[in-house]
């Protein structure tokens, strides 16, 4: 593209800033790996590994998590809400693809905001994103209780929450790790269960079950309400967090500048098509989810409707494998995140950097994450999802803003193409993400606001009123999440 900007150094404080990375479209050799990259990381991940890791982190069966809640919220337009999310994510994915080429180092949104905007701003973006890692195990505990409760309704909700948290905690305390190959297996199992679910749903629709017929109503109808669609989309954004996780593996990918942008768009494309297809069929079969006995547990009920009790058991069994696999991995990631933040001085070292000498596990951190996960006993599923998305939308917004700051701070040649890809597209991404962020429920905004306030107060103390450098979060975001 003739208007592509010229090569530019991207900041004196950037690791390896002595070299001048080429901007996208230049066609020259990829930027060298920064000299400060951690020596413990090895470039072993190919494109297929990145794609499967992202899909595993997203969990394909997550499409069933929020269906009942969002169907009720949007008045039967879940596929339309997914389309809105996909548009928002694609704009943000474009910005991720820009930034990962400029900064092929780990850290994702935190690193991009730190390098392009300001180190203190970067810390707060990373702090907001940390909330996602800490709350994801809670989501898994809630989902486990909902799905197991559909099969065993006589067992109290709290029993399944405690059991799920206990299993994940024990597995982490003994040092069990899920490798990328296990992630592939879990994705495969989920896809098989989902394909059977889709097949049975289509058969029921063709046979006219529940008066169903194929229609465009799940996408468009006379009673569509923009506020309801945006509220549903704000909840469904949780389904796409996996593509963001892939960007944290920039120092472990063989060819990060090429493969991570490709992986991001492949993940969004595959997952988006899958989510829309499945929810369209479910919405066609049950346009009014209030007819179901349990809106929150709508998916297990639909599984029983289309395939009987036997398929419901298979469906819930397959789903529980995914829930436990994700729960173990997410609790491990959150505990290692706290450990690395303590090790690097971003959190108090005495508490968070302690390792069990026998197992090599940060025991205190695992127990802290388990305690947070137990809040599943007091939080609804839609509230939990909104709380997680609070940090996600902040991270997505600042990734888009980082591209704009790169344009004005570092680019020398600012042709029409550069204005389009470094300003206009990211600006649209900012507006969409802020719009979705403002659509979150009040409780989530309050809790998220408290979390940001705590981070700001801690940063003020740690930096003596912003006079000292912000604590470094590059380590924790990157620390071997998928070893």
Descriptive overview:
- With 483 residues, the protein is mainly alpha-helical.
- 66% of the residues lie in helices and 0% in strands.
- The longest helix has 46 residues, at 298-343.
Number of helices: 17
Specify the structural class: mainly alpha
The best one-word shape is: globular
DSSP strand content = under 5%
The stretches of 5 or more residues where confidence is low (pLDDT under 50) are 1-31, 33-40, 176-180, 474-483
The mean pLDDT is 80
Radius of gyration: 22 Å
| Distance from first to last alpha carbon | 39 Å
Number of strands: 0
Taken in chain order, the helices and strands follow as HHHHHHHHHHHHHHHHH
Oligomer: single chain
Describe the sheet with the most strands. none
Helix content: 55-70%
In brief:
It is built from 17 helices and no strands. By secondary structure, the chain is mainly alpha-helical. α3 packs across α8 and α4 runs antiparallel to α5.
Distinctive features:
transmembrane, disordered C terminus, disordered N terminus, membrane, mainly alpha, APC_superfamily, transmembrane helix, AA-permease/SLC12A_dom, 483 residues
Compile the SSE list and pairings.
Layout: H1 47-58, H2 67-74, H3 78-102, H4 108-116, H5 119-151, H6 157-173, H7 180-206, H8 226-236, H9 241-246, H10 256-285, H11 298-343, H12 349-352, H13 363-373, H14 381-410, H15 416-438, H16 442-462, H17 474-478
């Amino acid at each position: 593209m003739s208007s592509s900007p010229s090569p530019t150094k991207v900041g004196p404080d950037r690791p390896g800033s002595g070299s001048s990375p080429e901007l996208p479209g230049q066609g020259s050799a990829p930027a060298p790996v920064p000299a400060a990259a951690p020596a413990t990381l090895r470039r072993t991940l190919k494109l297929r590994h990145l794609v499967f890791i992202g899909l595993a982190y997203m969990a394909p069966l997550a499409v069933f998590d929020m269906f009942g809640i969002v169907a009720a919220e949007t008045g039967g337009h879940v596929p339309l809400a997914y389309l809105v999310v996909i548009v928002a994510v694609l704009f943000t994915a474009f910005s991720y693809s820009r930034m990962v080429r400029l900064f092929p180092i780990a850290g994702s949104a935190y690193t991009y905001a730190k390098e392009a905007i300001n180190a203190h701003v970067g810390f707060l973006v990373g702090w907001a994103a940390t909330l996602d890692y800490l709350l994801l195990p809670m989501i898994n505990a809630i989902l486990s209780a909902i799905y197991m409760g559909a099969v065993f309704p006589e067992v109290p909700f709290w029993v399944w929450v405690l059991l799920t948290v206990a299993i994940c905690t024990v597995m982490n305390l003994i040092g069990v790790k899920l490798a990328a190959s296990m992630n592939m297996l879990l994705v495969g199992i989920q896809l098989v269960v989902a394909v059977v679910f889709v097949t049975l749903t289509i058969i029921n629709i063709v046979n006219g079950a529940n008066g169903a017929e194929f229609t465009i109503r799940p996408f468009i109808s006379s009673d569509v309400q923009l506020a309801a669609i945006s509220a549903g989309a704000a909840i469904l954004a949780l389904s796409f967090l996996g593509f963001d996780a892939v960007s944290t593996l920039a120092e472990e990918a063989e060819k990060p500048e090429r493969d991570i942008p490709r992986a991001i768009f492949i993940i969004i494309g595959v997952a988006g098509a899958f989510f829309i297809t499945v929810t369209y069929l479910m919405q066609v079969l049950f346009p009014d989810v209030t007819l179901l006995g349990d809106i929150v547990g709508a998916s297990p009920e639909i599984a029983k409707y289309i395939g009987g009790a036997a398929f419901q058991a298979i469906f819930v069994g397959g789903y529980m494998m995914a829930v436990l696999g994700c729960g173990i991995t997410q609790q491990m990631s959150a505990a290692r995140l706290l450990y690395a933040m303590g090790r690097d001085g971003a959190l108090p070292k005495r508490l968070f950097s302690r390792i069990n000498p026998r197992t090599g596990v940060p025991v205190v951190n695992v127990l802290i994450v388990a305690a947070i996960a137990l809040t599943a006993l007091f939080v609804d599923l839609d509230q939990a999802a909104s709380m997680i998305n609070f940090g996600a939308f902040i991270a997505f917004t600042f990734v888009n803003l980082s591209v704009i700051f790169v344009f004005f701070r570092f680019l020398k040649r600012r042709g029409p193409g550069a204005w389009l890809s470094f300003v206009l597209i990211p600006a649209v991404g900012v507006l969409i993400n802020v719009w979705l962020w403002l659509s979150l429920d009040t409780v989530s905004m309050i809790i998220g606001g408290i979390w940001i306030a705590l981070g700001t107060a801690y940063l003020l103390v740690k930096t003596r009123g912003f006079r000292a450098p912000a604590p470094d979060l590059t380590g924790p975001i990157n620390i071997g999440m998928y070893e």
